[in-house]
Amino acid sequence: MKGPRRIMIIDDDRCIGEALRDRIQAAGYETIVMTDGCSALATIALESGRSPLDLVLLDLNMPGMDGMAVLRALHEKYPAIPVIMISATSEREAFADAVRAGARDYLPKPIDYKLLEEKCRKALGEESAY
Fold first, then answer.
1. Is residue 128 part of a domain?
2. Tens digit of pLDDT for each residue in 3-51?
3. Apex CA 42: angle with CA 41 and CA 43, to 5°?
4. What CATH number corresponds to the domain at position 50?
5. Helix (H, G, I), strand (E, B) or coil at 119
């Protein structure tokens, strides 16, 4: 492995993005936090040749380009990057739609940080410590 794995967090709520960043960095991963889908996709395109992403944590409900639109674009252009959807919605159908559209997994808000770490390790193909 060449350095720490890179995880992008895309959430329009800056506080949630920063909390996720802090927890993920504490677990030994490098992070990039984006607050909107368009900027996130542009950043991924710019960096894909130099330092590709290993995982994306993606909020389902965002203004402008919502999480499903970002997921579809990611899955089309970068199908090898696993995506974990996160959302405050409790609608199982929304998560099922995301998985059908290419998401690897989902995580409800409020975030259970132990579960977050487990799901990240699983999506990255790393052995669980639990």
1. no
2. 789 999 999 999 999 999 999 999 999 999 999 999 999 999 988 777 7
3. 90
4. 3.40.50.2300
5. helix
